[in-house]
Amino acid sequence: MAVEPQILGRAVKAVQYRQHRALDSRLASVGSTLAQWDALRAISRTPGASARELAAATFQSEQAFGTLAGRLVAQRLVDRRPGHGRRIEHHLTSEGERLLEAGHEVADSVLAECFEALTASEREVLLELLRKIGDTPKAAAGPSVTRAPGG
Predict the structure, then answer these.
(1) How confident is the model at residue 100 (pLDDT cuts 50, 70, 90)?
(2) Where are the beta strands (DSSP E) in 13-134?
(3) How crowded is the C-beta side of 95, counted as CA atoms within 13 Å?
(4) How far apart are CA 132 and CA 127, in angstroms?
(5) Torsion-angle region of 76 (φ positive above 0: left; ψ -120 to 50: alpha; else: beta)
(6) How high is the pLDDT of residue 136?
């Protein structure tokens, strides 16, 4: 039986939605949101990264990430420093590192619950399949437009 792409896409979105809601809800217990924790995680992975790089890493627009980074600076979780040229670099403060670590513990717990119905080998297959479709350049480029000759 062939699975319709829209049904498959909706199933992926439903799992993502449930996962994000659970993460956001439980991260509140350590004083964070999913967006904040994800930004801290991205900064931790690439200290000194620009807002443009971090926006891409967190699947946000540059404007949205800039607003979020401003809040993180105001909360003393992130430090912005001048870089080369007009570049502004982002670094975690010690408080940002503490919150990130607390968030990791929450995320590990939530994600273990999200995937507990799958065996270890099923999780490996799922990851392989998601990477296969996620790494497809055509999927990242958006819809293609086919025009009639001369159109």
Answers:
(1) very high
(2) 78-82, 88-92
(3) 10
(4) 8
(5) left
(6) 72
What CA–CA distance (Å, rounded) separates 151 from 138?
Answer: 22
**3-state DSSP assignment of residue 61:** coil
The pair of structure tokens assigned to 82 is: 């001048």
CA nearest neighbour of 110 among 31, 33, 24: 24
Sign of CA dihedral 111, 117, 120, 125: negative
- Name which of 19, 66, 13, 21 is nearest 39 in CA terms: 66
Rounded to the nearest angstrom, the gap between the alpha carbon of residue 135 and the centroid of all alpha carbons in its chain is: 16
Beta-strand runs (E) in 8-77: none
| Mean pLDDT of all residues belonging to the chain | 91
Determine phi and psi for 8, rounding to 5 degrees.
-65, -45
Question: Is 69:53 a contact under the CB 8 Å cutoff?
Answer: no
Token pair 């800039």 is found at 66
